[in-house]
Fold this protein.
Amino acid sequence: MLDAIIPAIVLAIWLMLPAYIANPTAALLGGGTPIDLGRKFIDGRRILGDGKTYRGLLAGTACGLIVGVAQILLAPHIAPSLAGVVSPDQLTTWTALAAITMPFGALLGDIVKSFFKRRIGLERGAMLPIADQLDFVAGAWLLTYIVDPTWIAANFTPAIILTVIVITPILHVATNVLGYKIGKKNVPW
Ligand code: CTP
Ligand code: MG
């Protein structure tokens, strides 16, 4: 059982890392002009709110891209030590394009979620379980699928998709509690 689960977790993290990096780095480096420029929607509430900024979007995407490029460069060196766990072919699939669309899509998913949070009357930072944890997974997959469907199909097998859906909320809650404790997030979610 573990023989199948551990490789799936290692590969899932490897494939999601640039998307995973985007959220916390947007939180660390974001701020300044909000994407909605402070404007309100027809319901009188903010379109997105002050928690979605241009700097967060750009910095989060850039950090995800840097991590993705590092993975492209490091894959040949890391592959031998992981040989018993995942095959080298599975680690060397990163492309520069995917390293942009995964983090950028992740943050677009987060923005779309904020739009809907504001529409149902949730203020910035209010918790919306499941959506808060999986918004960026959906965004990363959707944007990357639109731009490069074969990359998604080749890497995200049903087993990996399931693994990502199970481990992401756990990792997300853990990083947010950490972010809250070091004072980078106002709420621990
Ligand atoms: N952030 C940003 N720009 C983004 C995404 C995030 O500047 N595109 C920063 C903001 O400072 C935000 C923090 O990261 O407050 C945490 O992100 P998140 O939890 O997604 O935002 P919330 O403040 O919880 O807002 P919302 O309720 O809209 O999700
Ligand atoms: Mg939040």
Q: What stands out?
A: DSSP finds seven helices and no strands in the chain.
